[in-house]
Specification:
Blueprint (H helix, E strand, L loop, with lengths): L5 H12 L4 H13 L5 H7 L4 H13 L10 H4 L4 H13 L5 H10 L6 H10 L48 H10 L3 H16 L2
């Protein structure tokens, strides 16, 4: 049996009689009016409402009596049975020798969202050990990066050829780019000097 003296009771009672936030104040005022049958004017004065604002509060609560005054706990906020159902699916998929990433992808295909880290936590809680490293042929069939063939320099062909392109004009500037690197000049100066030399030798 828990014993409280009058001072303790008064201290704890103030948590109900003097609400610290507006939602708690509305709850206590409405409870006093509907449950304790306190007159409207007295309930309004007790919890700091004007008579008119308290009548509006009562009217709004009458039209929406299912209103929530308290936030649900984390467990109450979850869909019923979802966590257990996902846990059972994770265990069943692991028994098929799937990794945490494979399990996460498999659940995503079925419309269930569970990260690899969450899958690993469930498996650890259930006592499953980590899978040994597997070869590619032992992994489940799903899209993988394409491995390109190794380059063979002997197949490089530098013989002259022709091709069509809409950006052929860009190749006209390549010589200027190379000359600018060799001479240490900007491509614009190389082009200007090139035009000067061309005009000089054109009259010869």
């Amino acid at each position: 049996m828990i014993a409280y003296n009058s001072r303790d009771r008064l201290t704890v009672a103030r948590r109900f009689l003097e609400p610290a936030n507006s939602t708690h104040r509305q709850y206590e005022a409405l409870r006093a009016f509907f449950v304790d049958r306190v007159p409207s004017a007295e309930a309004a004065a007790r919890f700091g409402y004007t008579p008119g604002s308290f009548r509006i509060l009562v009217h709004e609560f009458r039209t929406q009596p299912e209103r929530d005054f308290f936030l649900p706990t984390a467990r109450q906020g979850r869909p019923p049975g979802k966590q257990k159902r996902l846990r059972d699916l994770v265990i069943a998929l692991r028994k098929q020798n799937l990794s945490v990433h494979d399990i996460s992808r498999s659940l995503a295909r079925d419309g269930e969202s569970l990260s690899p880290a969450a899958v690993a936590t469930i498996l650890d809680e259930e006592g499953f050990a980590k899978l040994p490293r597997r070869r590619d042929e032992e992994r489940p069939d799903h899209p993988r990066p394409t491995v390109a063939d190794p380059a063979d320099v002997r197949q490089l062909d530098l013989s002259p050829r022709h091709f069509r392109t809409k950006f052929g004009g860009l190749f006209l500037f390549l010589p200027y780019r190379f000359l600018s690197r060799i001479c240490g000049l900007s491509p614009v100066r190389v082009m200007r000097q090139g035009r000067a030399y061309a005009s000089l030798f054109s009259g010869i």
